Each structure stands twice: as structure tokens, then as C-alpha cells.
Amino acid sequence: MLRVKGIHKSFEDFKAVSGANLTVEAGQLVAVIGPNGAGKTTLFNLITGQLKADRGKIIFKDEDISKLPPYEICRKGIARSFQIANIFPRLTVFRNVQVSVLSQQRKSVRLFRPAETLAVEETNTILEDVGLSDKADATAGSLAHGDQSTLEIAIALGNKPELVVLDEPTAGMSPEETAATMELIRRLAGSQGLTILFCEHDMEVVFNVAESIMVMHQGITIIQGGPDEVRNSARVQECYLGGA
Amino acid sequence: MSKGIFSLKSFGPIAALLIALVILPSIIPRFYIYILAVIFVTALLAMSLNMVVGHGGLFQFHHGAFYGVGAYTVALMLTKTSLPVWVGFVAAPFVAAFVGLLIGLFCVRLTRLYFGMLQISLGSLIWAIAFRWYSFTGGDDGIHGIPLPSLISSTTGAYYFGLILLIISLIVMFLIFKSPFGATLQAIRDNPERCEAIGINVRRHQLIAIVIATFFAGIAGVLFVVVEGSVFPDLLFWVFSLEIFVMCLLGGWFTFAGPILGAAIMISLRTFAGIYTEYWTMILGIMLILLIFFLPEGVWGYLVEKFGFQRKKSLEKERQ
Ligand SMILES: Nc1ncnc2c1ncn2[C@@H]1O[C@H](COP(=O)(O)OP(=O)(O)O)[C@@H](O)[C@H]1O
Ligand SMILES: [Mg+2]
Fold first, then answer.
1. Is the distance from CB of A203 to CB of A33 less than 8 angstroms?
2. Min Cα–Cα distance to chain A from B197, Å
3. Atom number of ligand 1 nearest to Cα A219
4. Gyration radius of chain A's alpha carbons
5. Per-residue pLDDT band at B146 (split at 50, 70, 90)
6. Mean pLDDT over residues B266-274, rounded?
7. Around B203, how many Cα atoms within 13 Å sit in the side-chain half-sphere?
8. Are strands A29-33 and A212-217 parallel, antiparallel or unpaired?
9. Residue B317's pLDDT is what?
């Protein structure tokens, strides 16, 4: 479904991503792991268009999306969450998700229908799925950190994506919140059949969830394979236990 | 109207205010009728600006330019052509919106402060045309004695005309504020980057917002001509745009009705303080500083926070 081929991105002279490859098949739950600064966020920003690649290709459903602006990439069916909560702080939790649903339904330029009556069911379903229903009327900016990260995911789901890209969904979460979030991700991948790509710096979190794991180190893809293959890879051992 | 949009709770006070405004001209002196009419015009203008500033998060620094374009369009059509009056009235908002579209097309390519700076430059260009082109616009003298239909040429007539147009405009603006477009616009204000990521073409939405806002500024321009019977280049001068901007900040730019309050306060201040002092711009500056430090959400925003918030809290308690 998604193929990243030899992608490169430099900031000034610094090579943040220099040769990353990634394959995500439809229905898969894929994780990208690597220590902080490995280039995971940069890679995701390249995939969803916030950054433009210097070199390389990003193919989504047989189409090169590497030159498209973020909103067009989203419309092709890729939605994302951000590592640092990137929500609409002055709007309610409900509205945060609703805006995303309205965009997906192409209703965001309607002028004379009350928004209150549109996309309500879809929005409520998502809030229920992620467990934010009871906070629907709260101002998003006032939520606790963990809830803001959950809202991040909810906003992404509002786009009814085929592929969801989650950038460190558990960043800054307590162990309990982390467990709950991973459970949510597993559930979304399972029951809703979503294709999910997420990244993590903590390896342990990933191994019992992901079907396929891509390991990144200093901007380069070291390996992509199943959990066992990755765990036993000599090069991964080297990077994580030795040099890194 | 569909339920929930115009809540019953606010219906009482609004109805009372409307009745008062309808009756007032028969009991107050003409000068005050005139001042109220000026407040209507300015309130509409400030409300139109707030659509892009408060709800859209755009640095629309030269909104007065579009107001001026609207006013000049009416003035020129009424004095230089023999077209029916209503044609000029209808054309003005469209001309203002068209100029808004042209300038907006350039501005939305830039971010924040650069957006504002480019708009000041382009708006000042229009001001320069109005100021310099004597043979067409009357230059710095402006155009006076614009012929108006007798029904609205008296102060009271202008007052009612202004009140009606203001109310209609406010209803339309409120519908837009509450629409999916309004919601999306507020989301863009809060976080344009995130909006792009959820499939929203941010620039296009901003451009639509500018066109709508400048359309209403054009209506305010029409009202100005009706109330004053004249136009002059000061309408398009950037200092006046700053004044409208302060009205939004003063009233509360994250609220819907705040700018009306801001306009009322500013016009009253200018009218009554302006008589005694020449330092109006200085007062303006001091007010802006005080606002930024003490009332960042504006008067209305402050009231909502202080009283509206408590109401919500007590509601929550009731639920438990
Ligand atoms: N906008 C930027 N400008 C300059 N350097 C950046 C920028 N974004 C990321 N970097 C650098 O690129 C490297 C990779 O960052 P990032 O992709 O955020 O890593 P990760 O998400 O894996 O922790 C880091 O060393 C970071 O400092
Ligand atoms: Mg990161």
C-alpha cells in the first residue's frame, strides 16, 4: 500500500534522513523504531507532506505522493497524528474531531447549515472508540497531556483514513497510559481493519504489537522484517547495544 | 431557525435591546441618533474584520481599504452615473469583495506578519489613488453632497436603514460563524498546520473568509455613505484600519458579538474624548497597550470568562 524508496532529507548540512526504505502492506500494523534523533519524525513528515524530500520516492497505492501538499495527501487516504500534541486548543474536544470529519465529508465550505447538526454521529463514535466521550465538551487545550495525545489519534481517525500514521503515540505517557494506547492501536488494527504505521523509541512496546518492524538509525533504514527477524539481527544488536 | 443556533436564553435580552433601538430615535436628540447610526456602521465594519482576525486568525491589517472601496463605489456611482441608487448599493459590496479577492490572492501566500504588511502596502495603494486622483475621486477633498433617496437621507432614516442592514448582516454572519465553514475557520486560526494534515486547503478557506469579510466591509461602506452623505480618503487610511483592529481586540476577538461592544466603546470615546483632546491617536495607543496587558481577551471575552465560566461550572455541579 505504501512504499518509501531511498528517501533523503537534509536540514542545512545535517542529514536527518539519508536512505530510508519502508513497506506497508494493506491491513498491516507496522512500527518504525529507533532512538531519539534517528529521523522517525522527519520520515513521517515526508510521508504526509509536511516536509518535501530532497530525493527518493513515496508511492501510495501506485501513485507518487512525494510532491503533493499535506491536504491532498490526506485526501488520498493517509491521516496522521503528531508526536507533540498538535490539536485545536480553543475548540472543544468534540469540535476537534468534528472538523476532521467535516473535512473528510467535504463539508468544510458549507456556509449556511449549522455545524452542530452535521457529522455528529461519526464524531461521537470516534470519541467513544478512543474513550474521550465524557470529555467531549471540554476545551481541548485544558486536557491532560495523555488525553491530548489520545485526541491526536481521534482527529486522525476523523479523516476515515486507509492508512493511519502515528508519530510516537505514547510519547510522554505513563506506563498505564502507554498500555491503554497500545491496546487502542491494536484494536483499531484488528476490529476496524485499519492499516497503521507508527513509531516508537522504546523497543519493548513494539515487539508484541507490530507485525512488521523497521529499524532506523541515524537516518538510515537498517532492516525491516517481522519481530523475530529484527530481534535476532546482528546489525540491530550492534546499533542498540554497541555503537548507539 | 434550527434549534440550538439562536438559544432561547439570549433571546430575551436581544429582543429588549432591539425594541429599545427601534423606539430610541423618537425620544433622544438628533445628535445621539446620529452617533448611534455611526456606531451601527462601525460595528458592522468591526464585525466583518473580526471574521478574519478573531475567527480566522489572519493579520488583516488594512480592512479599512475595503470599507473605503465600498463607500467610494457608492459615492462614484451615485454622483457620476445615472444608474438607480440601488444598483450602487448592491454593487459596492461586490466591488469591495472583488478587491478583497485580488489582494487576498497575494496575501494568503504569505504567513502572519508578512500577510499583514503586504496588505498594508496594497491597501495604501488604493488610498493613494483615492487621495491623488482629483478628477475622479475628488482627491483629499473627497466627494460631498451625495444624492440619496429621501427616505434614508434624514438622520432618522439613515438610522433605521443602518439598523436593518446591521441586523440582517449580523444574522448572516452568525450563521456563517456557526456553520462548518465557521468551525473550520476557527480550527485554522488555532492550528493551520494541523488543518492541512486533516485535508483542509487552508489558503482556499482563508481566501473565502477574506472575500466574505470584505463583502460585509463593503456593506458597511454603503452605510457610511448613507449616514454621512460623503466620502473622503481617510476612510482608507491605515490609521483607521488600526482603529477597527483595536475595536476587535477591545470587544473580544474570540467572541462573536464582542466587536460590536468594541465599536460602541471606541465611537463613544472618540466622540466625547475627541472633543476635548487632539491626542486621539495617543489615547488609541495607550488603550492598545492596556488591552494587551490587562484584557487580552477583550471586554466581552473577560465577561464571558468571568461569568459564563461560572455558569458552566455550576451546570457541572448540577449534573453530579
Ligand atoms: N526542522 C529541523 N531543522 C533542523 N534539524 C532538524 C529539524 N527537524 C529535525 N531535525 C534533526 O533531525 C534529526 C532527526 O530528528 P527527528 O526526525 O525528530 O528524530 P526522531 O523523531 O527519530 O526522534 C535530529 O537530530 C533533529 O535535531
Ligand atoms: Mg520524533
1. yes
2. 5
3. 14
4. 18
5. confident
6. 83
7. 14
8. parallel
9. 41
Query: In terms of pTM, does the model score above 0.90?
Result: no
The 3-state secondary structure of A164-177 reads EEECCCCCCCCHHH
Q: Which of A64-73, B17-26, B121-130 has the lowest mean pLDDT?
A: B121-130
Tell me which long-range contacts A37-41 makes (C-beta under 8 A, separation of at least 24). Answer: A38/A201, A38/A216, A38/A217, A38/A218, A38/A219, A39/A9, A39/A216, A39/A218, A39/A219, A40/A167, A40/A168, A40/A199, A40/A201, A40/A216, A41/A83, A41/A167, A41/A168, A41/A199
Per the structure, the count of domains in chain B is 1
CATH number of the domain where residue B283 is located: 1.10.3470
Q: Is A34 in the pocket of ligand 1 (CB under 6 A)?
A: yes
Instruction: Provide the domain limits for residue B312.
Output: 4-319
pLDDT at residue number B312: 45
Q: How far apart are CA A158 and CA A95, in angstroms?
A: 11
CA pair distance B186, B5, nearest whole angstrom: 17
Distance B151 CA to ligand 2 centre (A): 67
What is the DSSP track for A6-70?
Answer: EEEEEETTEEEEEEEEEEE-TT-EEEEE--TTSSHHHHHHHHTTSS--SEEEEEETTEE-TTS-H
- Counting ligands in written order, which one lies closest to the CA of residue A39? 1
| Closest residue on chain B to A48 (Cα) | B197
Q: What is the Å distance from ligand 1's center to A8 Cα?
A: 13
| Contact by Cβ (8 Å): A16, A219 | yes
DSSP symbol at B306: I
Supply the DSSP symbol for A241.
Answer: I
* A75 closest CB neighbour out of B184, B186, B199: B199
Summarize the confidence of residues B19-26 as an average pLDDT.
89
For the stretch B91-109, pLDDT in tens is 999 999 999 999 999 988 8
Domains of chain A: 1-77+162-171+193-244 (3.40.50.300), 83-160 (no CATH)
Q: Do the beta carbons of residue B213 and residue B51 sit within 8 Å?
A: yes
**Residue of the CA atom closest to atom 25 of ligand 1:** A37
Q: Compute the distance from residue A146 Cα to the ligand 2 centre, in Å.
A: 17
Kindly provide the ipTM of the predicted complex, given to two decimals.
0.90
